[in-house]
Automatic annotation (TrEMBL):
Lineage: Eukaryota, Metazoa, Ecdysozoa, Arthropoda, Hexapoda
Coiled coil: none
Organism: Schizaphis graminum (Green bug aphid)
Top-level taxon of the source organism: Eukaryota
Gene3D superfamilies named among the record's database cross-references: YVTN repeat-like/Quinoprotein amine dehydrogenase (2.130.10.10)
Protein name from the UniProt record: WD repeat-containing protein 11
Pfam families, A to Z: Beta-prop_WDR11_1st, Beta-prop_WDR11_2nd, TPR_WDR11
Length: 1142
């Protein structure tokens, strides 16, 4: 009995072997300037961008179009991928928002709109962000509607949870990646902060407003000659944030209103980034001051977008010229010579700035400038959230440039990435640059190179023509090709099955007016400059395989334009019709003129070749006197039908000797308006006039003609569908397109479907792609393939065909991806079987996904933890990447971090770093705060931090530096005396503890904590902080000042607190930093994360880390049960664990 799994496999096999055919889909080209910023890179390697009102999806690995949705009625403003590696995530779901406030949820793989989300706002969407969650079990979307409305939507339910309307205009917003309850809004004059964000409760209060102000005393706000110097300019840009409800006196050199982009720093806690045209400011929110500046010369192209990386403290900067640069944070270097692109104010001649401790970002690399046309603009930058070394730049022409950051292998960095360490792999950004906290890390030379480009047509599209239909003779080499002409004279060849633009040739010097296919290899096209003036028309035959062009009618002078060019059905002749001129008959093989008609013949308005024998009729005396005959050779006879301006049809015959002989003249018998189009199929001819009348002719019986008024104005095209016995035809008019069917005797027509267009979206041209599909070109530069109903121009990607060499995109379902990730990490095999729980259809998907995996790096990995990290990076499992980054670090690290060869974690993992690294990070930050000398309260906070860090000397210096005339001088002097005399060996500790307890009881918690730290009672101070729910301060104090046992106790309590708040991911990372692997396993087992738990057991066994045998057995049994549910063999699990132990 055949199961559903076998059926799915058989269907997939048939699709891989069948002929490439078309399916409803859409091809985008140019973008609108309002699409700026509508670009997003998914975790599993798909890129989505907005092109006018289209949502386009591209596979970034293979650089091929995957999907395109057309249901939006206005321009796309924002796009956002649904998180892949979450409980509520999916493999290919996408959210899009447009200028009218409509928000849609799409299923990319199945090609359908899941739902339209009711935002109850008809305003443009200026911002989309996923609401951060500790559980990842629901999808809540933060939406900013112009000009000042912020709301939270439940994507799955399609409803709005709450809305808040502000008094000020809101330009953008951002969630703090380190704190779930913090959100900031960028206003024209200030930045608005909220610390009480709740997912399902509306924001309360008005938040805290911060204004940009020049805090440097004595600085002149006007730009003088010295402001051009790097050092002076740097000080001038060192702004601060001033809290208040009213705007202070502003420095005109730089204000919030000029800010282009605003975001939280992804690598540093409590930092925000403001981007201006030539400057980027990094502000520390703890001291509300600028602590870093990235500047470029005013003569350079201004910034237009930035991206703050998480894995390393790196900022990608995109300029309006299309150039992409990388800024790497390093420690300020004395006597460092700046590059032209690096306006950072470091010391050049050994001056006093060598002691500066600001955040300095070195200009590390710059990509080449993208060559752009006059009207081309840069619309956006997207960076892969998993690797952070792959980038994409979207241009207004619809072209996408893909860049990759690569390390240049030289003699200095070829042997080792770290001193004494192996350079394992280069999958992500963290594998290219060392951690900022790593003193032994070598900064390698890198380059940003163009990895690929998704092309587009840069000019306006004018005409399309589908290739000759499929026949038995052409089946072996048949491809569904579409020729597209542009206003610049270019001709492009698209494959409608794969969605790829195969070729683009510059053929004409004028706009392409028409294209006809001669065969699957040759096309004939014509162009001219204007419809009103006499011009020299170009008629050219092009070989689409090599681009060779052969002009026809070379020696012609200026004359009326070419009306039509028609190739005969047997590909022996072609006819050229001139406006108010003679019709020319050409031999296709020799490219020579056979015959033409004199000007005494009524001007031909339209013409069509006929594939049947016309009945004998009345000879026309005109046609017998105007033919100039030239004998070329013996060929098959062919018929053609010409219509004049009065609607008369003239039949001609080209006999076997290539003589043009007059046939019959078929009089309409009805008063006709000037005809506009003529088409034939077998014995049926269709003729349309300018009044919207359609005439159906039976060429085998001249008396059988029918007049149908189809109520269409300005009919521009009639075309029969291909296929035997199929008399469906499309009618293109100024107000839309219709599909009719001719049936019965006498002939009648019936309408099958209609598509009306509005003023914004007009049909430019149309053709048949098959008997069941039409291809239509619109004025938004898109080309869409529709079915007969003309309602949908996209399908499931399983119905699409993809290039045989590139293959389909590797998109795996989330559950399948987790299974594949486990077995690949555990076994590193390239071939899998059904005994592992996969069905035949899933095995075919896995086989396709294996082609894009980094097998060289995987085969070099001997450690399961390292291989798991590489696999989850390759498959786009973001949560798994975070887990295995921390797990791999602590599994390999020894108990003594000072002698460990494992590089330290970077600043984004600050709370789970080892204590030595964490204390170093915090001390450097406090030293930076000290360097940013401010008012008394600022220096007081710095002194307090020095006390908690045990830096008594630095604290004394700051306290004794208080001015004698300052009201706080006496208090600071007494505090300095206390610090100098009190230590952990003080005899009267009980008195100090009592005073500290009283201070804390009176809500003077900070002062009480400082007293406890002075006498070495840091653990007791942490307990006080925990009792007041100040977990962040307690963790900070524990990692900076407590012994290992004491700080373990505090962090274990914090992990329990996180679990009670259902923040399992963070709790697991904290427990990993404590090397409590048994506790980690318990959490993973209880949360049904069996694959991660099993890999952790295997990794610990491999590194001789002892685990609870009961937990190991429970993991093994749950994994066997999971395998059994999926139809696998449980013995495979036992063999895997037994082999790993040995």
């Amino acid at each position: 009995m055949e199961t559903n799994k076998d059926k799915r496999h058989s269907i997939g096999s048939e699709q891989s072997n069948r002929l490439h055919m078309t399916a409803p889909r859409t091809f985008s080209n140019q973008c609108h300037v309002l699409n700026k910023g509508s670009l997003d890179w998914s975790e599993n390697g798909l890129l989505a961008y907005g092109s006018n009102n289209l949502v386009v999806i591209v596979d970034t690995a293979k650089v091929i179009p995957v999907q395109c949705f057309t249901d939006h009625k206005s321009l796309i403003k924002k796009l956002l991928w649904v998180p892949f590696d979450s409980v509520s995530g999916a493999s290919s779901e996408l959210v899009s928002a447009d200028c009218t406030g409509d928000i849609a949820l799409w299923d990319v793989c199945r090609g359908r709109c899941i739902s339209w989300i009711d935002s109850e706002q008809a305003k443009p969407v200026n911002g989309l962000e996923w609401v951060p969650s500790s559980l990842n079990n629901d999808l809540l979307l933060g939406v900013l509607h112009a000009p000042y409305t912020f709301s939270v939507l439940d994507v799955r339910k399609g409803t709005r949870l709450w809305k808040k309307t502000f008094c000020d205009t809101i330009n953008s917003f951002a969630f703090d990646p380190f704190h779930l309850n913090r959100i900031a809004f960028l206003c024209p004059e200030c930045i608005l902060f909220f610390d009480n964000f709740e997912r399902k409760t509306a924001l309360s209060g008005n938040g805290r407003k911060f204004y940009i102000s020049n805090t440097a005393a004595g600085e002149n706000s006007t730009v003088n000659e010295e402001s051009t110097r790097p050092r002076t300019r740097f000080k001038r840009l060192m702004k601060g944030l001033v809290l208040g409800e009213s705007q202070p006196k502003m420095d005109p050199s730089l204000t919030v209103s000029e800010c282009i982009q605003f975001s939280y720093h992804r690598a540093l806690r409590n930092h925000i980034i403001l981007m201006y045209q030539h400057d980027i400011l990094i502000l520390d929110l703890y001291i509300s001051m600028t602590v870093g500046v990235i500047s470029i010369d005013r003569s350079f192209s201004p910034f237009c977008q930035m991206y703050s990386c998480r894995q390393r403290d790196i900022i990608y900067c995109l300029q309006e010229s299309g150039s992409l640069s990388l800024k790497l944070r390093r420690k300020p270097i004395a006597n460092y010579l700046m590059s032209p692109m690096d306006a950072s104010p470091v010391a050049v001649a050994g001056n006093e700035s060598s002691s500066d401790t600001y955040l300095w970002y070195e200009h590390r690399i710059q990509s080449e400038i993208i060559r752009q046309t006059k009207n081309s603009k840069v619309l956006g930058l997207a960076v892969c959230p998993i690797t952070e070394k792959h980038c994409a730049i979207l241009l207004s022409l619809g072209k996408i440039m893909f860049f990759e950051l690569e390390k240049i292998m030289t003699a200095s960095n070829d042997v080792s990435f770290y001193l004494g360490r192996r350079d394992s792999h280069k999958i992500a950004l963290s594998n290219i640059f060392p951690s900022f906290n790593d003193n032994q890390g070598l900064i390698p030379k890198v380059r940003l190179y163009t990895r690929g480009m998704l092309p587009s047509l840069e000019s306006t599209l004018t005409v399309i023509k589908y290739c000759p239909p499929l026949t038995s003779a052409t089946r072996a080499k048949y491809k569904p090709l579409l020729a597209v002409g542009t206003n610049s004279g270019n001709i492009a060849i698209f494959n409608l099955a794969t969605g790829l633009m195969l070729k683009e040739y510059h053929v004409h010097s004028h706009p392409v007016r028409g294209i006809e296919w001669i065969s699957q290899r040759y096309i004939i096209s014509w162009s001219f400059y204007s419809y009103t003036l006499n011009t020299k028309s170009q008629v050219i035959v092009t070989d689409i395989q090599c681009g060779q062009s052969t002009p026809v009618r070379i020696n012609k002078v200026d004359e009326p334009y070419v009306v039509f060019v028609k190739v005969s059905p047997l590909k022996q002749y072609f006819v050229i019709g001139i406006k108010d001129g003679p019709v020319e008959i050409w031999d296709l093989k020799s490219m020579s003129l056979l015959s033409k008609m004199s000007k005494r013949f009524p001007p031909a308005v339209c013409m069509e070749w006929v594939q049947c024998n016309l009945s004998k009729g009345k000879k026309n005396s005109i046609t017998t006197t105007i033919i100039e005959e030239n004998e070329i050779g013996s060929k098959y006879p062919e018929h053609l039908l010409i219509s004049d301006i009065t609607g008369n049809l003239y039949a001609f015959l080209i006999d076997s000797n290539s003589f043009l002989k007059p046939g019959t003249m078929i009089e309409p018998g009805i008063l006709l308006k000037p005809p506009v189009y003529l088409t034939c199929k077998l014995n049926i001819a269709l003729q349309a006039d300018s009044d919207g009348n359609l005439f159906v002719w039976d060429l085998s019986n001249q008396m059988d003609k029918q007049k149908q008024h189809i109520n269409r104005l300005e009919i521009r095209k009639l075309k029969f569908a291909p296929g035997a016995g199929n008399f469906r035809f499309l009618c293109l008019s100024s107000d839309g397109i219709d599909i009719f069917n001719v049936f019965g005797s006498p002939q009648s027509i019936e309408i099958i479907s209609t598509m009306k267009t509005d003023k914004k979206l007009q049909v430019v041209d149309a053709d048949w792609a098959s008997a069941e599909h039409s291809v239509i070109m619109f004025n938004d530069h898109s080309i869409r393939v529709f079915d007969l109903k003309l309602t949908k121009s996209y399908s499931s990607i399983y119905n699409y065909e993809f290039d045989d060499l590139l293959g389909p995109p590797a998109i795996l379902d989330r559950d399948l991806c987790k299974m594949f990730y486990f077995w690949l990490s555990a076994t590193c095999k390239k071939v899998y079987s059904t005994e592992l729980g996969f069905n035949n259809y899933e095995l075919s998907l896995i086989k396709n996904a294996c082609h894009s995996l980094p097998w060289t790096e995987l085969e070099l990995c001997t450690k399961i933890a390292e291989r798991s990290l590489i696999v989850c990076q390759s498959l786009g499992l973001k949560n798994e990447v975070q887990f295995w980054t921390v797990a791999f670090h602590y599994i390999l690290a020894g108990d003594d971090y000072a002698t460990s060869v494992v590089p330290p974690l970077d600043s984004c993992y600050d709370v789970v770093c080892d204590c030595e690294t964490y204390r170093k990070i915090q001390l450097e930050r406090v030293l930076l705060h000290e360097w940013k000398s401010g008012d008394y309260m600022h220096m007081r906070r710095v002194a307090d931090k020095f006390i908690l860090l045990g830096e008594k000397t630095r604290a004394l210096d700051l306290l004794l530096a208080t001015n004698v005339n300052d009201p706080n001088y006496y208090t600071d002097a007494l505090k300095a005396c206390l610090i100098a005399t009190v230590d952990s060996n003080t005899a009267n500790q009980s008195t100090i503890k009592l005073v500290a307890a009283n201070l804390i009881a009176e809500n003077k918690i900070d002062e009480g904590i400082q007293l406890l730290c002075m006498i070495g009672k840091g653990s007791q101070a942490c307990r006080y902080l925990i009792s007041y729910n100040r977990w962040e301060q307690a963790v900070w104090l524990a990692k900076c000042s407590l012994s290992k046992d004491d700080f373990d106790t505090v962090l274990k309590s914090w992990a329990d607190h996180l679990l009670s708040n259902r923040n399992q991911e963070q709790a697991v990372l904290v427990l990993l930093s404590l090397k409590r692997f048994n506790d980690v396993l318990k959490i993973l087992i209880n949360s049904d994360r069996i694959y991660r738990a099993a890999l952790l057991v295997l990794a610990c066994q491999q590194n001789n880390i002892s685990l609870d045998s009961i937990l190991e057995k429970e993991v093994c049994e749950k994994l066997k049960r999971e395998l059994y549910i999926n139809g696998g063999d449980g013995d495979v699990v036992d063999n895997l664990f037994n082999e790993n132990k040995t």
